[in-house]
Amino acid sequence: MHFAILASLDSWYLADLRRAAAGRHELIALTFRDLHSEIGSPCGAIAVASRDIDLRQFDAVLVRSMPPGSLEQIVFRMDLLARLEAGGIPVFNPPRALEAAVDKYLASARLAAAGVPVPHTFACQTADDALAAFAALGSDAVVKPLFGSEGRGIARLQDEAVAERVFRMLAGMGAVLYVQQFIPHDGFDVRVLVVGQKMFAMRRSNAADWRTNISRGATAEPIELTAEMAALARRSADAIGAPLAGVDLLPASDGSTYVLEVNAVPGWKALAAALQIDIAAAILEYVERQVVGG
């Protein structure tokens, strides 16, 4: 099959997908920055292309990156993916899922609406409202950028004076203040990779940092999902609308389990190494099944 991969051209994930596709699928790497569209062409169709490559020729498009850009650029890119999808080209993940997952407020709202347990969260635009949220959360909270991943820009706040400085700085930058309850835990979380009906999971532990991202020094090991964890991961992916999803579960010290995040452009490098499983092959097999079945 003929797949377009929207990715950084030097991405490890692109290389891994190419390795897994060898002899079975043709993968063409494209970048978001090169996407453009033509409306009102002689044939009457809406064309979406990258450089001189028409994306309507592919069997499917797999999104493997979400590069930063202006608000106009981000909206335009999602609009282009939506036009492809409307034209019958399968996109993984669907643009609506990408839009939901990249926005922590929208993702948390969708999860909560689906009955998924999420930390107590406030989202606001002024430092005063954020300080009121900080007090309501017992003066122990985590502030996160609305957009972002891998633990970047996240800080735990336990002092009111420090919190006020942080909130006023962020408000001055025009940021949305996303303030979340700190959940006491035992130094690990669980990353579940949902690939259609399959799930792959690892336990991420970090003795040196309360954040358990691999990029921050956490170590990974296989874990067998409980029925509760598997159900939470499935409900979370469904709430976002992402058939390919990285779901972060946090087992709290009190025995409850929270969903922290759903990533619609999930990585699998550490997961594949920990489980000794060819995740890239599993993803390509899933995409192929959807194209054939569709």
**How would you spell out the order of helices and strands?**
EHEEEEEHEHHEHEEHEEEEHEEHH
Instruction: Return residue spans where pLDDT drops below 50 for at least 5 consecutive residues.
Output: none
Overall mean pLDDT stands at: 92
The computed structural class is alpha+beta
Fraction of helical residues: 25-40%
Q: How many strand segments?
A: 16
- How far is the N terminus from the C terminus? 14 Å
Shape: globular
Side-by-side strand order of the widest sheet: 14-13-12-15-16
Characteristics of this structure?
single chain, 294 residues, alpha+beta, 5-stranded antiparallel sheet, 9 helices
Structural summary, described in words:
There is one protein chain. The protein is an alpha+beta fold. Helix content is 35%, strand content 26%. The chain contains 9 helices and 16 strands. Strands 14-13-12-15-16 form a 5-stranded antiparallel beta sheet, sandwiched between helices. Strand 15 (244-251) and strand 16 form a beta hairpin. Helix 2 (71-86) runs antiparallel to helix 3 (95-102) and helix 4 (104-113) crosses helix 7. It starts with a strand and ends with a helix. The relative contact order is 0.14. The mean pLDDT is 92.
Layout: helices, strands, pairs:
Blueprint: E1 2-6, H1 12-21, E2 26-30, E3 35-38, E4 47-50, E5 53-54, E6 60-63, H2 71-86, E7 91-92, H3 95-102, H4 104-113, E8 121-124, H5 127-136, E9 141-144, E10 155-157, H6 160-172, E11 177-181, E12 188-195, E13 198-205, E14 219-222, H7 227-240, E15 244-251, E16 257-263, H8 269-275, H9 279-293
Helix pairs in contact: 2-3, 4-7, 5-6
